[in-house]
Amino acid sequence: METVSTNRAFGGVQGVYRHASTATGTDMTFSVYVPPHEPGAKLPIVWYLSGLTCTHANVTDKGEYRRLCAELGLIFIAPDTSPRGERVPDDPDGAYDFGLGAGFYVDATQQPFAQHYRMWSYVTEELPALIAAEFPAADMARQSIMGHSMGGHGALTIGLTFPDRYKAVSAFAPIVAPSQVPWGHKALGGYLGDDRAAWRKHDAVALIEDGARVADLLVDQGDADTFLAEQLKPHLLERACAAAGIPLTLRLQPGYDHSYYTISTFMGDHLRWHAERLMRNG
Question: Where's the active site on this chain (predicted)?
């Protein structure tokens, strides 16, 4: 693991790191904030998955999480959203919603994407193992996960798949049912092929319909989000959770959009939500 940069912040250390990934076959960059702590202390982890076009840097620069992570004693980890490099195939038309910056947190099975687009394995297996090896303060028994938009989709599907690993799950403006919206049709079809049965494990609503459960969920969604009606459709998650008996706190925020202005506004609420559940399960 190579250290790209470290900076002192609120008594802790904000670092950016790079390593050669076996999952993606590329170099991958990620950020980790470690709050101030006593020597030998073990701290819970919050994973943050970013959305379309983003890297680790978007939330690192604009998420405004460090002050509260320092107060609550939370390690905050932000992976990249896709593999990158000269050999990595992109959307053939250069569109923003597929290819580079749009890995959708799946392991692709379709060519030419199957070799490098293995973000599910990277986020759920390889990067956690690296964190455990390189960050002695990280308590791998206390992990939680959140994300934004495409990353909200990733957080929901990963949290639902590994409910014993992630003690809390939340999302900002998530793609809750990619099987039912244009972004998801393009991404899941392009990465996984035409068999829609293979899509279901990467669709939060479908996972819930198929029996996946978590203790509860928190979702914030701006009502001025231009993607709300066509791509996000939080009412589908609300309906699925109600049918499954999953307590869902869905907050439609008046006047807020899809940007990091919205995320930074409600980041504190999400971190407190995660901290309460991580400490309860400590």
Answer: 149, 225, 258
